[in-house]
Amino acid sequence: MILSGKDIAINIRQAMREEISSLVQTYGRAPSLAVIQVGDNPASTIYVRNKIKAAEFCGIRSVQIALPVTTTEKELQKRIAALNADELIDGILVQLPLPEHCNEERIIRAILPEKDVDGFHPVNAAALWLHRPLVMRHEATIYSPVQDYGCTIACTPKGILSLLAATGVNLDGKRAVVVGRSDIVGKPLAKLLLDRQCTVTIAHSHTIDLPAVCKDADILIAAVGKPKLITAECVKEGAIVIDVGISRMPDGTLSGDVDFEACKQKAAFITPVPGGVGPMTVTMLMQNTVECFIRRMQKEQ
Ligand code: NDP
Questions:
Q1: Ligand 1 within 6 A of 207 CB?
Q2: What is the pTM assigned to this prediction?
Q3: Which pick of 76, 114, 172, 246 has the fewest CB atoms within 10 Å?
Q4: Residue 273 belongs to what H/E stretch?
Q5: Catalytic: 37?
Q6: 33 shares its domain with 108
Q7: Ligand 1 neighbourhood includes 206 CB (under 6 angstroms)
Q8: Residue 162 and residue 58 share a domain
Q9: How confident is the model over 213-243, as pLDDT tens digits?
Q10: HSE-CB for 170 with a 13 A CA cutoff
Q11: Is 95 a catalytic residue?
Q12: Is the shortest distance between the CB of 272 and ligand 1 below 6 Å?
């Protein structure tokens, strides 16, 4: 079965729109998101446009800040400091990648952790790793895919948990293989799956015999960026296959990390590219913005 992130994302955004209109009644204003783009990288421009469009749909106030490619790291830091101090801004996102003269790590650290809607700040990343919920307060749903960690969880892993919840499959005790160990996808996703009681393996570029490792997975997630790395040989019959990778092919089309046509014959659930993980990532950004807003509002009261 094809797991359409696009359809699930639309449902969540519609529900969020209603939730946000009731939040406006409660708190007197809508959540707000500032999106900073430095330079005019065409892919970044598309991503920023999608995020602003999603915010508008959900009823989140967005503030778009387009800075020239010549912006220095100091100037960018100053803009972030102003947004940190702005009471009416709940979330700050700096679109990556940045031009080479700006250090991404320092820029991410400049954002207040409580306004870091991407969940990339070390305070948020560390909180995810240290927190191990002893009691499951509620079952994960597509609307609420992870337990409350009291911090912001990176959007793509959170969106993947939401996709998994939409399958209705109980994750408890399942073998999960995450291919890729980046700080923004592979590693946080592995921790979230661990907390969902999966037995998790993280594979990477030094993994020996990747097909054999993957073949063991009830849940296989590819976050690499290598078109069609995951062949049918890697997929166990009846597995859930989630494709995070996005690569632009020479003919202009997009390709995932999974050979979709071959693998869909064996998988119980499989996500397409495009229309799989991508729309869920943007939707979780909206959800993170709402969560940051609620936490700030509750702190003020
Ligand atoms: P990174 O480049 O940061 O990480 C890629 C990972 O893949 C690394 O851990 C690397 O291993 C591993 N890898 C590389 N080659 C192999 C191989 N042959 N076998 C096994 N593992 C390998 O990428 P990201 O995590 O940032 O992104 C991964 C992909 O997901 C990209 O295509 C990106 O565009 C896409 N993406 C999509 C999103 C969405 O919303 N749909 C969001 C974020 C990313 P090692 O550590 O050893 O180098």
A1: yes
A2: 0.96
A3: 172
A4: none
A5: no
A6: yes
A7: yes
A8: no
A9: 999 999 999 999 999 999 999 999 999 999 9
A10: 2
A11: yes
A12: no
